[in-house]
Amino acid sequence: MIHYKTPEEIEIMRASALLVSKTLGMLAKEIKPGVSSLYLDRLAETFIRDHGGVPGFLGMYDFPNSLCTSVNEQVVHGIPSKKPLENGDIISIDCGVFMNNFYGDHAYTFEVGEVDPEVKRLLKVTRECLELGIDACRVGNRIEDIGYFVQQHAEQHGYGVVRELVGHGLGRSMHEDPQVPNYGRRGRGKKIKDGLVVAIEPMINLGTHRVKQLSDGWSIVTLDGKPSAHYEHDVAVVNGKPEVLSTFAYIYEALGETPESPVTGSVPLP
Ligand code: MG
Ligand code: MG
Question: Of 14, 91, 121, 136, which shows the fewest CB atoms inside 10 Å?
């Protein structure tokens, strides 16, 4: 059952989403060769608690940390470790916050030092997939329209769209109905209505779409060992249109980059 949110609930969720956004912006300044993902995890947990939130992932389904940190061929659900990041790595950081009874859930794939142009292109196209998915999240469309546009754009570039993991409704629970696959057919699935809040999160692989789980019981990796990218935003449907509750603006500010995206980069810093 889908729990549609009131405008008041959406405002509370915006605060949770923004705390995740600020946490990722804080981490953006710390990510460099030699730094471990476990160090980033400790920084994030402290930052979230200092700002009145609780780490959303810590203890959820017995996950041991506050961040999912997925390096290179890891797609999602990587467990933070002491292994130092290396020049040329990419690291997808997925972060959840629980605050005022509502969750935020938001992810970004960061470059570590100098990254191969082929991988940079994967990151850019995956951000474009996210934009296209967000733009499809509006009244008049259905849930699978989101994945249709994500999949079409990714596959045009020869990339693999992960099937086994999907976006989701978000609210008082981290994972609510509906599931939001990153693939689909036009005009299929539930009608999109005002008050819907979903986490849209394309997971796009440089090579095959096929993945497997490591023996740690968490990490999902690409079957061919090629890199994978993951970006996620929390999106509410307001007055028929998508409103992005999270923002990459803090990340762009930290990295000194100009946002390429009109949807997610232009949100003013509160
Ligand atoms: Mg997430
Ligand atoms: Mg999610």
Answer: 121
